[in-house]
């Protein structure tokens, strides 16, 4: 069975750490990397579906919909469609869908920052100091056996997470007082949203994928980041072969067989790529039964599982997740 490793790595990791340290771990970009940037290449079915739901609903809402019965998912989707159709002409067009996706993504980030800001700063002070954050998130480490701190689980260790957060905190801390105001804290939690955090995002990505620590990404490391061979795989699936070609042809611009930081940057943060627009086009393409490049409510509802999850659509994935634990 194919396993979309990276997705579950994060799930497992967050599961582990959340169970110990409240719900305050900053989200790393694993799991999103491939989804964010390669969904248009139609990787695995489950993969892009989950991604589509998160783009369309925002991560929190996507989880909520996953729990709903199909009829209830469709009903709520109908209400959303009326909201998206801002000019009320009965069609959802590209610009309306794009505006909606931008709205849900912004809302998700704002909600996430609000939640974490409150959790680390219940008195609502102007700033959070690193020591406070570290104690909240990593305080449990003081009680742990040093060997356990360094033990890697799927490539992660608590110690490495702490080191990474420390560095990220310092970069987000624009005025260098080791405390973050809310805006700095937003950059810390969602570095992909801030221009000045992007080189750090690239470095973190390279470090994640670069298993032999030579500072660059080989094709095997690149593939290993999205696909893990298991015993009952007889042959590599088509999308993996396709990814190998993509590595050679597009990602490795100077054709030296490796991705350096610049090449990784162009991969994960392509400068001329508009996510919301690409995702909107993709969703329209998936549901546009009469090919007039806009969607009626009927078209959207008849493809509801493209836009939102439900117990039915996510049942298979839940099983996969379950056996990972
Ligand atoms: Ca409209
Ligand atoms: Ca500061
Ligand atoms: Ca390497
Ligand atoms: Ca290269």
UniProtKB/TrEMBL annotation:
Domain EF-hand: 72-107, 197-232
Keyword Endoplasmic reticulum: yes
GO BP: any one term: protein transport
Signal peptide: 1-23
Keywords for this protein: Calcium, Chaperone, Endoplasmic reticulum, Glycoprotein, Metal-binding, Repeat, Signal
Stored InterPro entries: EF-hand-dom_pair (IPR011992), EF_Hand_1_Ca_BS (IPR018247), EF_hand_dom (IPR002048)
Protein location: Endoplasmic reticulum lumen
GO terms, molecular function: calcium ion binding
Entries under SUPFAM superfamilies matching the protein: EF-hand
Domain of life according to the entry: Eukaryota
GO cellular component: endoplasmic reticulum lumen
Pfam families: EF-hand_5, EF-hand_7
Role according to the record: Probable molecular chaperone assisting protein biosynthesis and transport in the endoplasmic reticulum. Required for the proper biosynthesis and transport of pulmonary surfactant-associated protein A/SP-A, pulmonary surfactant-associated protein D/SP-D and the lipid transporter ABCA3. By regulating both the proper expression and the degradation through the endoplasmic reticulum-associated protein degradation pathway of these proteins plays a crucial role in pulmonary surfactant homeostasis. Has an anti-fibrotic activity by negatively regulating the secretion of type I and type III collagens.
Subunit structure of this chain's protein: Interacts with PCSK6 (immature form including the propeptide); probably involved in the maturation and the secretion of PCSK6.
Designated name of the protein: Reticulocalbin-3
